[in-house]
Amino acid sequence: MTEDRGYLLSNQQAEAGARFDALATLFDPPTFRRFEELGITGGWRCWEVGAGGSSVPAWLATRVGPAGYVLATDIDVSWLTAAAEAGCEVRRHDVGVEPPPDGGFDLVHARLVLVHVPQRAAALTAMIAALRPGGRLLVEEADPMMQPLVCPDESGRPQQLANKLKRDFRTLMARRGVDLAYGRTLPRILREAGLTDVGADAFFPMTGAACDRLEHATVTQIRDRLTSAGLATEDEIEEHLSNVTAGILDLATSPMIAAWGTKPA
After folding, report:
1. Could you please report the per-residue DSSP string of 73-137?
2. Which of 11, 132, 140, 231 is deepest in the core (most CB within 10 A)?
3. Closest CA to 107 of 55, 70, 77, 74
4. Phi/psi of residue 252, each to 5°?
5. Do residues 177 and 165 lie in contact, with contact meaning Cβ atoms separated by under 8 Å?
6. What is the model's pLDDT at position 17?
7. What is the sign, positive or negative, of the torsion defined by CA atoms of 200, 21, 57, 78?
8. How far apart are CA 165 and CA 154, in angstroms?
């Protein structure tokens, strides 16, 4: 860790909503499939950690029904109004430093959270501690180093520029203590934590409108950070955003590694 810390993609920025919408389009379907495979049903108690937007906790609330309970937490709950309206309890909470909520949960889930938490080991310990015996943990984290190119088909200047800016973004993340290879470690970490029936898979969207929206929102959110750090120029950023808007890039997300396990009874 260096002194250059802090979450780059603040929920307070106007682009956060567009980013959450794009992430939901790309990643909610595999997340919901994994929930179903873990056996979620009516009456379950669920904790959505670092929820960000409302799509995941709202879906959980629908699935567990009135006999169940969904807690959605984040250090910034600005975008969780729809989750509250869907019947979730919304609470400000920093999973890296605060004790886990009481009550015990049948399911604890975090997506794109732990890589940004400096105290990620403590956060994972808290999430496991919050599980009831037999409860399920599902953690989903990107692994940018597994596939480092946002344009795997680097066929010309627009694609080269996109990949250059992605490297610049990852430089900023590394300066903030983000582990860019964390995703691949999840199965081992869950086993070492004592969970059983550990499994994992990966999901890697490439090209399409949602990938374009995610890239545009992300780069817009970090453009001032890139320029102030001397990593990119305004001209480079404007050129790239114009290319994204024109739809000429086959943009890819980083591989999303999902790992799950069960707390022994």
Report:
1. EES--TT-HHHHHTT-EEEE--TTTSPPPSS-EEEEEEES-GGG-TTHHHHHHHHHHTEEEEEEE
2. 140
3. 70
4. -120, 150
5. no
6. 83
7. positive
8. 13
- The residue among 8, 50, 12 whose CA lies nearest residue 173 is 8
The 8-class DSSP code of residue 145 comes to T
Strand-pair category, 256-262 with 131-142:
antiparallel
Cα 188-97-118 angle, rounded to 5 deg: 55
pLDDT tens for 171-205 read 998 888 888 999 999 999 999 999 999 999 999 99
The two most distant CA atoms of the chain are separated, in Å, by 58
pTM, two decimal places: 0.92
Angle at 2 between CA 127 and CA 193, to 5 degrees: 25
Measured between alpha carbons, how far is 132 from 166 in angstroms, rounded to an integer? Answer: 40
Q: Which CATH number fits domain 16-262: 3.30.420.40, 3.90.76.10, 3.40.50.720, 3.40.50.150?
A: 3.40.50.150
Indicate the domain borders of the chain: 16-262
